[in-house]
Amino acid sequence: MPMTPPPADASARTHAALFDQVADHARSAGVFGAVRTEAAAVACRALNPEADAEYRLEVAEDGGFWVGFFTHDRWLSQSVEADLVHTGDKLHDLIEEEMIDLGLGRKLAPGDVVHFRDDDKRFVFRTRFDAATPAGDLAKALAAYEACFVELGDVGESEED
User: What's the pLDDT band for 119 if we cut at 50, 70, 90?
Assistant: First the structure.
């Protein structure tokens, strides 16, 4: 007997519950500014109020998830890129190290972190996760992105620094 897929609203309810769990983890981590849930995402503002940036968990087109760093600020994106060029560090290595430090043993290859400008004119750095990834691991991935990016460019700097 063929299996029928769950109704679309069941998937939305599942995502809502997962997003609520991830948002709770993000709030308790204390490393983000405002944290909010959206229909298909969790958005965590960068703690630095001058940084036009956020860390996001988004539903991927295939039902998996994207975790990443997003900014509309071209200069901020370029400052991150300049740090990477200057130091010679590979972004996937830096994010992987932070994931390991947070207890998420995910190995990242060079192509696992993609960087582009999206249709909303945001500069995006992101990594894909499978649909079966637990909420706690997605929250760790968000925290790993924050721990990595707060050290790059002008993401973590403020006028008081």
Answer: very high
